[in-house]
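#onboarding

Welcome to the new folks! Below is a worked example of what a typical request in this channel looks like: someone posts a single protein sequence, and someone else replies with the predicted structure as tokens. Don't worry about understanding the tokens yet, we'll cover that in week two.

Example request:
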Amino acid sequence: EFYGPHQSFCRNCRGLVSIAASTNTITNEYPELRSFGMVSKYVGEGTHVIGSESKDASLRNVAYLNADGSKLIVASNISKALKVVHVKDSTGKEFSFALPDDSAVSIKWK
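Example response:
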């Protein structure tokens, strides 16, 4: 309910959902929950995490190389503003997309 529990290594981490202690009901689902769902749907056996970075702390992302050679990025925007995400892979392919506030996306390409 109050972004807990807090671990010593992560003072600003939050869970996937917020649960009201008084009613035991989910009061908020965070973008990380959608990201987790996307990862579980698109990341399979033989998939490896590849380099992924962001200079914006409100854009959380991870990139994968799938066993079939395709690439996948899962990103979430935890801010309250629209963000434009620029992606460039190791082969030189580039693309950009808009990611609305408080949202998540998965994009797969070859």
